[in-house]
Amino acid sequence: MRIEVIGGGSLGAAIAAGLAAAGLDAHSAEEVSDHARGVVFADGLRSVGPEGATALHLAALRAARALAKHKGERVFVTVQDTGGSFAMHGQAGDRAWAGGLAGLAKTAIAEWAGASVKAIDVATGDGSVDEVAGRVVAELLSGGADVEVALGPSGSRSVVEHHAAPYAAAQRAPLREGSVIVVSGGARGVTATSLASLGHLRPRLALLGRTALVDEGPETASAPTEADIRRSLLARAQATGAIQSPKDVAREAKLILDCREIRANLAMLERSGAQVSYHAVDVRSAEAVAGCLGVIRRAWGPIHGIIHGAGVLADALIASQTDEQFDRVFGTKVDGLRHLLAATAADPIELLLVFSSVAGRLGNSAQAAYAMANEVLSAVAASERARRGPACLVRSLAWGPWAGGMVTPGLARLFEKAGVKLIALDSGAQALAREVASDDPFAQVILMNGDPPVTAIPIHRAG
Q: Both ends of the chain: CA-CA distance in Å?
């Protein structure tokens, strides 16, 4: 079997040399060739900051995609340096933005039956190239079936497990009456639903969403369903002689329904006790985010909190995931967080919550981009918690599937068949309220499979 070690500079070359010295057909390369049946993606060992995160993870996806077209025996390994702890200890700094590679590996496990897959986080530190490469090679040759392996400083080896994590009562309140909270993706879906549980604290919620609000015409105002709206739009077109394709009608009908949902959620949040404003902005644009937050400050004053709940899905198996799909999914999650953090660098932030997913923590077939993006969010949250200290509550919430939002009826049936319980909307909202009121030391928690959701944290066990 030909194994290609992709990228990683001198460390990647040393890993390839070490595997070759052990008798394997291993080679250092910059791209995966048609002859490769094993890929060790080592470019996660490079120092990558926030701006380089998208290019790094897209390169990893392309490497996996090249290998995915081959059937039979395959080997796929991701190697990164996020402190030798998958960034969970908060010491990775800017390297945390490279923390999504394990999500790709875990997705490959879910998709490729019989493949040998591993994610390695090795602390390079002050170690020599030969020392660091030797640790990686030893893990590849004798590490067994463990998937997430952390090679920490001083020669330690550990694997990732999940343990129950009871809530700890907060010593302080990160939200007070009048606190200005910027919420991405907060006007639709489960994010909006969960925010209602915070209304009694009377915050000021500035909701950011992709959809520009439009007023619908009188011809659709009484049409309750999408099918009814489409019929009304077609009747209008026929009456006016306008030419509208079925695709145009479907797009307009969806926009009308989206605007109705947004307006209903804004009213619901105001009834819960919050002051609410809505801003149409694409969080993938740094300029748009900065401009929008400037408007919010001029109206309400400094920003005290960020809840990053924006997300989109473009599910596809690794073999067929396109670069464009990756950009939409990864950009909304990762670039969105990057831009929100940059635009609030001078604000007195006391609350930073990011909505992650168990797709990143556990892997999920057809969700490579989503899994990688959510793993980055959790890694960055740990880094931000360490950087900001106790004055700011920082947490990544790795949600299981909700009974609503992006979980369609078809997906719900698949989850039910797999024995995964959906999180009821009211239970999820209560879980968010408990997180805001909890002062435990964990930067990442998992919430899934129960009513109320079971809470867990990823930890390391010596291996």
A: 28
Q: CB burial class (10 A; 0-12, 13-18, 19+) of residue 123?
A: buried
- Give the chain's length: 463
Taking a C-beta distance cutoff of 8 angstroms, is the pair 157, 149 a contact?
yes
- Rounded Cα distance, 15 and 278, in Å: 51
Q: How confident is the model at residue 294 (pLDDT cuts 50, 70, 90)?
A: very high
- Report the alpha-carbon distance of residue 135 to residue 155 in Å, rounded: 8
Q: What are phi and psi of 210, to 5 degrees?
A: -75, -25
Which residues fall within 8 angstroms of residue 17, CB to CB, at 6 or more apart? 26, 28, 133
Determine contact, residues 304/181, Cβ cutoff 8 Å.
yes
**Please, is 113 exposed, middle or buried when counting C-beta atoms within 10 Å of its C-beta (0-12, 13-18, 19+)?**
exposed
10 Å Cβ neighbour count for 127? 16
Q: Residue 421: is its pLDDT beyond 70?
A: yes
Q: Which amino acid is at 36?
A: A
Q: Which helix (H) or strand (E) holds 303?
A: none
3-state secondary structure of 457: strand
Cβ proximity of 266 and 278 under 8 Å: yes
CA–CA distance, 411 with 222 (Å, rounded to integer): 30
Q: In sequence order, which ranges of 112-185 are alpha helices (DSSP H)?
A: 129-142
- The torsion of the CA quartet 309, 315, 319, 321, rounded to 10 degrees, works out to -60
For helices 368-388 and 53-68, angle between their N-to-C axes, nearest 10 degrees: 150
CA atoms within 13 A of residue 84's CA, in its CB half-sphere: 18
Question: Pseudo-torsion of CA 194, 198, 202, 204, nearest 10°?
Answer: -50
Q: Identify the structural domains of the chain with CATH numbers, from first to last.
A: 2-162 (3.40.50.720), 180-462 (3.40.50.720)
The band of 405, judged by pLDDT with boundaries at 50, 70 and 90, is low
Closest Cα partner for 101 from 129, 142, 59, 70?
A: 59
- What are 67's two structure tokens? 């290998």
pTM higher than 0.90: yes
Under a CB-based contact definition with an 8 Å cutoff, are residues 93 and 360 in contact? no
Check residue 458 and give its pLDDT. Answer: 83
Give me 39's structure tokens: 């890929």
